Amino acid sequence: MGQTQTRQHKRRNCQKRVTLSSRTSRSASGHTNAHEVTVRARLETHHRAVCLHLLELLRRTAVHGESNSVLIVGPRGSGKTMLLGCVLRELMSLREVQKNVLLVELNGLLQTDDKIALKEITRQLHLENVVGDKVFGSFAENLAFLLEALKKGDKSSSRPVLFVLDEFDLFAHHKNQTLLYNLLDVSQSAQTPVAVVGLTCRLDVLELLEKRVKSRFSHRQIHLFSSLSFGQYVDVVRAQLSLPPDFPDPKFSDEWNHSKLCEDKTVEEILRRNFNGSKDFRSLHSLLFLAVSRVSVSHSTLREADLIEACRLISADSKANVLHGLSILELCLIIAMKHLNDTYDGEPFNFQMVHNEFKKFIQRKSHSIHKFEKPVVMKAFEHLLQLELVRPVDSGVCKVQREYQLMRLMLEHGQVMEALQKYPQCPTDVKQWALSAFG
Ligand SMILES: Nc1ncnc2c1ncn2[C@@H]1O[C@H](COP(=O)(O)OP(=O)(O)OP(=O)(O)O)[C@@H](O)[C@H]1O
Ligand SMILES: [Mg+2]
């Protein structure tokens, strides 16, 4: 019996998810045109339908007093916050909504427990004075009091409240999931019109909810996934780089907007690499931001070189950067390790082997490097260990003396060579030693 019920319940949920798309198309054709136009202008195609669906859902709460709950699920940077922001702006621009709706925004990273969350709800609803020093028996009592207090102004109808829970999954870690339970419970009952909108990047978010919480959720989910093709991605780059029509200098903006930058082969390659790495707009923005920040009065157009430099800065290897700050002795040890890696085909080495390799170099080839005492070399080696450029093979309890402990170099051949090229005033014999095939 119980199983049949669960299955029926699941089927109902699935049906709800399927109807999402049909409802979306209905709302796309049936809803006020002015809103669609603005929303359309702001969002690219695959977010549009979702945006209109969410707008319609929240409008039903705000105007008709229908309670609702919905989850927006998508990876980081997929535009969840942007989507909701856009929808809320649209919603608040409706005259019948403006004065009526109350918005409460919570974030799982800030409201780390339900007590803090409740305080924040009270603050955002401007009910601190009403609550005063009252002591409540339970969370539910407190929330009910708050929602009741909202009714006082006009007894005939209560004001709809939109609860936005960013990082929704973090609220599931609160004790007994009290906040989620109570909010979703209110959204299911006819007491006060409430819409609960959760934003999360966890696909499995429903698995985190307790049974009693899950059963109170409407199971409406909006999934945001980037299905952009490379062509569309380049269009977005073009759009993001263009100056708006109301730019004060039309001649300049005309020239700027007609730039053929995106057609350049190198630029296309950079964009493709970025696109293949991650399609999210956050990383694209940081790339374009770095490129645009190189524009100045003396060079007022965006050039291919700016994007190449931005790409270089963004993909700069943090480990290779650490190498620039090393002393010559530490660098020599890295080279010795590189040679050991070449000789022994990547097998782990110990300090003694590195020291021997280094001594061989000093005796045979070097004129510019001092002879260092062993403890000094050991100190340098330990510094490399601290920087995690070398790591012990066995990180467990080690009974071997430090000198004989097996280590691995955490750098690639290319990283070492690149760092050497850029190292300021690197002695020539050290460079040659690094270039030579075998130590
Ligand atoms: N479809 C899109 N078109 C244009 N820009 C977008 C799009 N999606 C996201 N962005 C941009 O990407 C950036 C990140 O988006 P947003 O903050 O909405 O992501 P998020 O899903 O909320 O991420 P997080 O999970 O980290 O909160 C924003 O600057 C936003 O303007
Ligand atoms: Mg966000």
UniProtKB/TrEMBL annotation:
Span list, region Disordered: 1-36
Cellular component annotations (GO), alphabetically ordered: cytoplasm; nuclear origin of replication recognition complex
Biased composition (Polar residues): 16-32
Biological process per Gene Ontology, one example term: DNA replication initiation
Keyword field contains DNA-binding: yes
Record's keyword terms, sorted: ATP-binding, DNA replication, DNA-binding, Nucleotide-binding, Nucleus
Intracellular or extracellular location(s): Nucleus
GO molecular function ontology, one term from the record: ATP binding
Predominant subcellular localization, coarse grouping: nucleus
Segments forming domain AAA+ ATPase: 66-227
Family: Belongs to the ORC4 family.
Its job: Component of the origin recognition complex (ORC) that binds origins of replication.
Quaternary structure and partners: Component of ORC, a complex composed of at least 6 subunits: ORC1, ORC2, ORC3, ORC4, ORC5 and ORC6. ORC is regulated in a cell-cycle dependent manner. It is sequentially assembled at the exit from anaphase of mitosis and disassembled as cells enter S phase. Interacts with DBF4. Interacts with POLQ.
Protein name per the record: Origin recognition complex subunit 4
UniProt organism field: Sinocyclocheilus anshuiensis
Gene: orc4
